[in-house]
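Methods — Computational structure assignment.
A single polypeptide chain was analysed. Its primary sequence is given first, followed by the predicted tertiary structure written as structure tokens.
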Amino acid sequence: MSPTSPGKLRLGGMALRNGLLVHGPTHWAAAVRAADGSIRVGSGRKPRVEAADGIPGVRGVARLGEAFAIIPLVKRALPDAKLPFENPSVIGAAAAAPLTGAIVRRRFPGAGGEVSATMLSLFPALFALRGGELAAYHGVEHKAIAAYESPDDRDASEAAKEHDRCGSHLVAPMLASNVAGALVLKRALERPNALAGGAVAVASTAVAVEVFAWSERHADSRISRALRRPGFEIQRLVGTREPDERQLDVGRAALTEILRVETDGPKDGV
């Protein structure tokens, strides 16, 4: 997929269990399908850490932090919104993953154990996508944004359900940076504590996001294509599902709202 067309906003998003959250340069907007069948829309201003924009490594972590900071704002404006992990089974899987990973690391020290434990950390996200409408709304996210970014203003129904900027493309660089960081930490410290482990996790995330950004800037290079291949396969096989017209309508509502608020600001002044 080609980069965003000139003159158009750079948009990102997150699939909800019953809708779509889209964020632009300065605002967020979300649309959900309520229990009564209606589409409800909310929007507001994004929290921003502008001081981090020009600092490699720090800027990526800051952007991720901003994306998570939007979530409570969405829930406050749209109580009907159902978050991706707002499910008892998924919460259970998320709680079990780090415990299982710790067991694997103790049982299989070295690179093999680190790779296995890191792969296990992906399980809750994949598990969340297996049920309900989340995978379909992930497809809505990609199709709505791709349709907007296209130079011919195509409809979302005509766009692909896989997208070049999907967070799934972080999988390969995140896996590599986490494993490398964990191995370096084990060599540096005989018994790494939680603080050291957390520092390595943050540093690994920063490296992965910078690699992700490099891959986007060099989309046609062989290395970039190799780095993004696992993400494309995750999207194609389990991460996205072709949405129906009812779900696409929710995506169109979210897109209309983000374009409105980026021009006029939110109606409620949030």
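Note: The mean pLDDT is 83.
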